[in-house]
Amino acid sequence: MKQDDAFEKDLASIHRLMDRSVKFVSLSGLSGILAGTYALIGAGVAYFMLYYPPSIGVAERYPIPDIQTAWKLVVVAFLVLVASFGTGLWLSAAKAKRRGVSVWGAPGRHLLINLMIPLIAGGCFGLICVWQGYFDLVTSATLIFYGLALVNASPNLYDEVRYLGLSEIALGLASMLTPGYSLLFWAGGFGVLHILYGSILYKKYE
Predict the structure, then answer these.
(1) Closest CA to 182 of 118, 116, 129, 131
(2) What is the DSSP letter of 57?
(3) How far apart (Å, rounded) are the C-alpha atoms in residues 123 and 48?
(4) What is the pLDDT of residues 101-139, one digit of tens each?
(5) Backbone angles phi, psi at 57, to 5 degrees
(6) Using alpha carbons only, what angle is made at residue 120 by residues 113 and 104, rounded to the nearest 5 degrees?
């Protein structure tokens, strides 16, 4: 019996070592919570830019922004991205230091490559949509490409990240079917879902 217990412990140790060799286990759930908070703040700023001052007697569900406002919204989204990425990198580096591993080890490099390819493609697609005036596609595109990035990077992360990516893709597709609520879907995908899944990761792994 003791030999069996020792054998199972050895297998568990080997399994943990294999996971650490391929998975980026330094991802902080708190970074997801903060990223979601930043996104909700950004959505509030975007709502103010689109709907203020309100037109008396006019119920405009989906105002199409002029090109200047559209580029201002791009700046808001970019600031949210920078704040989220910076916070995630800082918290992940701190967690890696506590674990005695390097944040830029092989799992971190593989994660960055798998994550950035769909993100860069989606960012370029979104900018082209703004430039060409297809504003109603931007929200859906960012959600879908971000979801694809998470699914693509999920083998190097926790399993929950894959479900977050699939949820983002589903919200992006739903946003295409209901363009009048694009900002709401954007806030739900980048804000609420990040807070939800970040809380799950924080509770489960930290």
Answers:
(1) 129
(2) T
(3) 23
(4) 666 666 677 778 888 899 999 999 999 998 888 888 888
(5) 80, 5
(6) 30
